[in-house]
Amino acid sequence: MPPNTRLELMSRPGRLKGLADSLADQFVSRNHDRGGWAMGVLYRACMRSGRGELEIDLLSRTSRPHSRASQRSAQEYASKLRVYGSVFGVPSDSVRAARVVVRFNEESRAHRWTHRVTGGDPFRVAVTLEDDQGRHAQSVKAGWCWPDSWYLGVRLFFWRRTQRHLKRAWS
Prior knowledge:
Layout: H1 5-9, H2 12-28, H3 38-49, E1 53-57, E2 62-64, H4 68-88, E3 95-104, H5 114-118, E4 121-131, E5 136-145, H6 150-170
Antiparallel strand pairs: 1-2, 1-3, 3-4, 4-5
């Protein structure tokens, strides 16, 4: 396999930043699933604990507040840190700190118009990495979600109901 020349030209701080960006993108992705979109499930767990913030330490694989969904996310993203680190040329033993912080109901001026289209409450995800040489990289992503995918469940209910009515009308 030919070497990745783009990666070879990238400095180590650039690789660390790329790793943080990839982890943050994956964390907010709709494919991050926990019996519903994970952001909604994690939001619901934070609401139950009375906190508006979730912290995950990827190296110790722990989360605060602790819930089944947050623990599963901690395990999954600790593994992704290792896998993506090898892709970006950042050895797992060189990462000294890796933390994901999710703040729910976080206002974001950059996404104020998105709310009109998507609905839900705003959130911010910050992935912070530190390597063995003391260099830091952070990636912040913002979005909107409903707690526990409630909104998506309601939409699915009405979609199925509409499909039944259409089926009856055409038969």
